[in-house]
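Hi there. Long-time user, first ticket. I'm pasting a complex I've been working with (about 380 residues overall). I'd like to know whether the download I got is complete or cut off, because the file seemed smaller than I expected. Thanks.
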Amino acid sequence: MKKIIKFLFIFFVFGSFVNIDASEKNHHSNKYKLGNIEIEGVYTFITPPTAKVAAGYMKIENEARKADTLLSVTNVSFAEKVEIHEMIMENQVMKMRPLLDGLNIASDEEVYLKPSGFHIMFIGLKEPIVKGKMYKGTLNFKNAGSITVNFKAVDRGYHPDKDHHKHH
Amino acid sequence: MLSKKILLRRILPALFITSIVLTVIAFFTLQKSSHNLDRVDVNFSLETVNGDQFNQDKFLKKPSIIFFGFTHCPDVCPSSLQLLSNLIQDLGDDASKINFYFVTADPDRDTKKILKEYLGYFDKKIIGITGDKAELNKLYGALNIYIKRIDLDNNNYTIDHTASFIILNNNAEIIGTMIHEGFSKLLVIDNFGKIQFPKEEVKKNIIRLLQL
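Hi, the file is complete. Here it is re-exported in full:
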């Protein structure tokens, strides 16, 4: 009898862990839909206390028949300025440039904003990015319109999903 | 008859001496080949963020791993510092046999105070270096580091910079580099024969390269 209770207990505890895991995962992948634009895995890395900049990442999928452009990110209270950047590695030299005309997302394409690639750059941080906190920003698309998303603050080394690995 | 005596007395000693001479020549030739490595042979005078002297002599007692970046860099610099912190953790006691440096590519904005506070967030073994531009330029040049300021709109600027880690042996020679493989991994490259060490084993590769 004791054995059965023990077994049930372990089963229960383990089961609840699995459940927590699953809900966390859903939470992490914070999905958004704006017309034919789907946004997923929105995050930013925690920053050192004196850091003046941070970068935001996500996956944007355009299911529309025509291309769209992420023009800007506004409504950000924790930074003075926000830009959309691309990063290029050339012969081990890191080059970062603002995309002045925005980030193009072709029809039926998905674009990853990810470390060492495109990112939303938060300039002039008013507060450090702290783990677990959500940071709000509004994404403005040329065609699809605007949507407010939450950037989840995570540790460095975090990957939003397995798809990101594939694209590395 | 050319007896065994002659063989023993003349030829064998001659062979013996020849072999020693060849060994000595081989030894010096091999030694010489290690001198094909680029060596830091400029004199520069900088200070660490803690106010300690930092000059070319610091590259002589211990091997060094050096990264160049700036605190206004949102992506590759903090990630690199995190990867370096992880490596230091992995190395455990062996980490004390190496000096780790983060040298600013942006001395205008990275004051000692700002850099010190910034680095406080990463492994404490990483020593911050900032200071006089001319002195920093000497160091960039000696380590073949590309650094270029790019002016952007609204008086803002960014800096293009080499994002690989330079590995010096304890003779101030560039013995290898660590480069970014994808984003979350580092790859060790030996500058002797440009051997790329397996990427999963950064710690072992560093120990092997520096013969710790």
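A couple of notes from our side: Residues 74 and 82 of chain A are 7 Å apart (CA to CA). Residues 33-166 of chain A form a domain with the Immunoglobulin-like fold (CATH 2.60.40.1890).
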